Predict the structure.
Amino acid sequence: MSKSYFTTGVSALFEMPTSDAERILPPHLQPIEVRPQRSILSVTAFHFRESEVGPYAQLLLSVVVPPIVGSWERHPKAGFYPFLGATSSAVSRKHMAETLRIPTHPEDIDAQFIERPDRIEVRIRSGGAPVVDVSVTQHEWYPTTHLLQSHMIDGDLRLKADVQISGHYTMHEHERGRLQLHAHPITSALTLDEVSPYPFREHWLKEGVELFHPVEQL
């Protein structure tokens, strides 16, 4: 089990073309559509202050998929297929690729987490070029724990892992955040001008822990 402590993190959901989602996903997974031909892109960024590979920043781009139903006590809220991750250090990239089985961008990212009175802005750069600018806004804060499910592949192997995230949390669907995706190798799988610039769901987390459970073969 991989345990990482974060100071802050954001996760926002945006509409994306279903044609992109189906091209990105392996054949055994199907995207969730919010309306005909519009699926869900998850943009997630965390600043981890402590982990088994030291402190680092992380960006994950994922397509939202149905979770595999478990027991009533451990039913994931959502499933994700992280098709690309990027981090701020070589050791964290190696951990993401070899332990978590998530494809990674080969270069470091520079991530700025800028807190305003009512929002947080995250600016991701890599190789001197902009990658992602995303902001989410706050609502009511409360402590929470979410169980999510990550799907991965390794060659012909179909894999999954439960991901438990606990911390102080605010979430809403008021569409006050903003996303700007820049042309970059990290975003090359996406048709940029067809991704919605406004999230239909915004999450902001503070001072918590992420538990990435052992990877299982399906």
About this structure: The radius of gyration is 16 Å. The first strand starts at residue 2 and ends at 17. The mean pLDDT is 95.
